[in-house]
């Protein structure tokens, strides 16, 4: 099985969004040079990325079928196999994730939320029931949720992750601002907003400095 880098995996949803826009506009075929020019990647990078997941080669001077590319990427990313998830911690961020409609198009169905706030427990948020975090062990197996989305404060994150794994979660999507660990056999993806902001801020600073020197 081919190994895919994190950067490579992160490009596929960008390709997918672009190809769906093309399909919506009635465009049936697209070439690697046009993709590269639109998305700012090198032609070689685009060719390698698409060859790695596509079952059909491109046609000379015509490119690849947009419909086939969408199918190949959605299959590769698992978007066509629905995965259930719960959100643990339904504050501002957790609540926003519960209300994010695009997840269904990515094969992710959030079935419930968990929280310690008694004012939230027993209410609906974006149509999803909010349960007490104390019921995680009882309900997680019954909900058959494969992914636990962690949106709790940093000090509580590891304990919540341990509980979720103990009761059946096979994937942890961690939005808490801290490092957590999981045992072998459990998939962990950390979303580090601070790191992302640091990269953005650095590039912005470099760009602003460059423009000042040009004046």
Give the SSE map.
Blueprint: H1 6-24, E1 29-30, H2 32-39, H3 43-53, E2 64-65, H4 66-77, E3 83-88, H5 92-98, E4 108-115, E5 124-125, E6 128-132, H6 136-143, E7 147-150, H7 154-166, E8 171-174, E9 187-190, H8 193-214
Parallel strand pairs: 3-4, 3-7, 4-6, 7-8, 8-9
Antiparallel strand pairs: 1-2, 5-6
Helix pairs in contact: 1-4, 2-3
Describe this structure in words.
The model has no long low-confidence stretch (mean pLDDT 90). With 215 residues, this protein is α/β, with parallel strands linked by helices. The protein has helices at 6-24, 32-39, 43-53, 66-77, 92-98, 136-143, 154-166, 193-214; strands at 29-30, 64-65, 83-88, 108-115, 124-125, 128-132, 147-150, 171-174, 187-190. A seven-stranded mixed sheet has the order 5-6-4-3-7-8-9, with helices on both faces. A two-stranded antiparallel sheet has the order 1-2. The longest helix is centred in the C-terminal third of the chain and has 22 residues, at 193-214. 47% of the residues lie in helices and 17% in strands.
